[in-house]
Amino acid sequence: xxxxxxxxxxxxxxxxxxxxxxxxxxxxxxxxxxxxxxxxxxxxxxxxxxxxxxxxxxxxxxxxxxxxxx
Length: 70
Known about the structure:
Elements: H1 2-6, H2 17-36, H3 40-69
């Protein structure tokens, strides 16, 4: 009984490759927005712009890889 109480359970977060790429795009866009622009409005707009290009590039790259495979 004591041994059962001492065992720890761990949970693993498993995300898909697409989710990981979108998460990376989000954080990279935040960093780009904060470091490349001076005022808050420009930071948000540039971050959204970078995020859109990251995700758009992700879709383009995935279609190119799909066409190469088939």
